[in-house]
Specification:
heterodimer, A: alpha+beta, 2 domains, five-stranded antiparallel sheet, about 40% helix, about 15% strand, B: alpha+beta, Double Stranded RNA Binding Domain, five-stranded mixed sheet, four-stranded mixed sheet, globular
Chain lengths: ~180, ~325
């Protein structure tokens, strides 16, 4: 009888371990999906930039702080193109609408954006880091063993980006059709 | 070779379909509140009641902040393909035009330029979209901040087609000029985003205009007179309404008021382009109302006069030319 109880307890323990592992796996899966989602932008407007630029703080993810910073730059530009920036919470700046208003623009111009956002791609031309030091303190969070989350303040050449996308025919000009 | 020809055809088609619609003119006008609160106003006696109106000339001559804000906005709008009409310059041009028109005479007979009272009345600064600008520098303890309001008003439908407003971050270090510049930089993108939405709607659903139908007093015609048109006998006003339903984009219009001598059509959606003499042409309200005038002449033998008030408003005065 004692042996039966021991086996039963072991089976229960195995079931519990399997369920927690699968829960952790599904949590990781959800997190991965969120990281890769085209709608997931963690962005805040910091202040009004100098003429034609936007000063924003963007959070990026990556296995190293450097990789997370690179991801943040990519997200900052993607946000300027597809979602726009929210207003600054302290009233320092109004909201900025997205450059591209067509909701299907990403799918329609997939080839262009794949090249544009490729590692070392043209998107880097429109983004400047406002600080040289790697993020530290509350701007550098270790999410788990493999992932860092960093917040970087970026100066985005918004007007230049808009003009170039208008030239490429991806963004619609304000005077288009007139 | 075949692909080159088809390519050229596609380019020609694209060029033909774009750049056709009539471009609205935009002008920044300081709000009445801004002018009156800063003392740029004039008061006159209008049949016993005192009326205060903004004095734009005085505002431009005295307010450096206003000039700076308008200059910044003009630069940003020109950058987006919409150079703004300058109110100050327009007022100077109109004054010069009036002086020159009164001096010109024909060399053969010495005749002056024919100018009706309505021509004189029409000599005012106007634009299709008015950017109504208001701002105020406020104090909060040692800090200053700015409240900024920008409304894009359609001059004909009186609708607010784009707007941006808010209060800036209080600062004790920044000068009023810097605060104003920041406000313009901050709000113009939002304003232009809304303007873009308005233009998108215009291209999708047609230009929204206002049309007034009136009658000449001496013509002896009312809009309640019955006419037989293609076998249907009905009031002239009903025939006009039927024509509007047949010629507006998706039959969109509303008859907001009608009497025996007047009809007021609002929210009339007219196509941006029409085919005229086999060619695609941009359409404005005058051209649209001219088609109604032709229809009444051909089908009801009623003459009418088309009077243009601007890109988005025209009147049809029935009874005489």
């Amino acid at each position: 009888m004692k042996r039966v109880t021991q086996i039963f307890a072991m089976v229960l323990a195995l079931i519990f371990m399997a369920s927690t592992t699968s829960q952790a796996q599904s949590k990781n899966k959800v997190r991965k999906m969120e990281y890769n989602s085209q709608y997931n932008y963690e962005v805040a407007t910091v202040a009004v930039g100098v003429d034609g630029t936007k000063l924003v703080k963007v959070w990026g993810y990556g296995p190293t702080p450097e990789e997370a910073t690179r991801h943040a730059k990519e997200l900052g530009i993607a946000c300027a193109i597809f979602r726009g920036f929210p207003p600054a919470s302290n009233g320092a700046a109004a909201k900025t609408p997205p450059i591209v208003t067509d909701s299907d623009a990403a799918e329609k111009n997939m080839a262009f954006f794949e090249t544009f956002f490729a590692p070392g791609g043209k998107y880097l031309q429109y983004v400047n880091l406002s600080t040289d030091a790697p993020p530290s303190g509350e701007d550098r969070i270790k999410v788990n063993k493999k992932t860092y989350k960093v917040g970087v303040v970026l100066s985005i050449a918004f007007d230049e980006l808009r003009k170039d996308l208008e030239k490429e025919g991806i963004a619609r000009k304000l005077d288009a059709g007139f | 070779m075949k692909s080159i020809i088809s390519g050229l055809f596609i380019i020609a088609l694209a060029l033909n379909s774009f750049g056709q619609a009539k471009k609205p003119t935009i002008m920044v006008v300081p709000s009445d509140r801004l002018c009156i609160s800063k003392g740029y106003s004039m008061t006159f006696d209008n049949q016993g009641s005192q009326q205060t109106l903004p004095d734009y000339k005085k505002a431009f001559q005295n307010d450096g902040d206003l000039r700076m804000v308008i200059s910044k906005m003009s630069g940003m709008m020109a950058d987006r393909g919409f150079p703004l009409k300058d109110l100050e310059q327009e007022m100077k041009n109109l004054a010069n035009e009036a002086a020159e028109a009164s001096m010109i005479a024909s060399t053969s007979s010495g005749s002056a330029i024919a100018e009706s009272p309505i021509d004189v009345l029409k000599r005012t600064a106007k634009a299709d979209i008015i950017m109504d600008l208001d701002f105020e520098i406020k104090q909060m303890g040692p800090k200053k901040y700015i409240t900024f309001t920008l409304n894009g008003l359609d001059a004909y439908t009186s609708k607010n087609v784009a707007s941006a407003s808010g209060s800036g971050q209080p600062s004790s270090a920044a000068t009023p000029e810097i605060l104003l510049e920041e406000a313009v930089l901050s709000y113009m993108d939002e304003f232009n985003g809304r303007l873009m939405t308005h233009f998108d709607d215009m291209f999708k659903n047609g230009r929204e205009v206002k049309i007034l139908v009136k009658t000449f007093a001496n013509a002896g015609i009312t809009l309640e007179d019955e006419y037989d048109l293609k076998g249907t006998t009905d009031m002239l006003s009903i025939h006009i309404e039927d024509w509007m339903a047949d010629n507006t984009v998706e039959k969109r219009f509303s008859l907001s008021d009608a009497t025996a001598t007047m009809m007021r059509f609002e929210q009339v959606r007219i196509a941006m382009e029409i085919t005229r003499n086999g060619k695609q042409r941009a359409q404005d309200t005058r051209m649209f109302v001219n088609e109604l005038s032709k229809y009444l002449r051909e089908n009801c033998q009623v003459e009418s006069k088309v009077y243009l008030r601007g890109l988005g408003e025209a009147w049809l005065i029935v009874g005489e030319k």
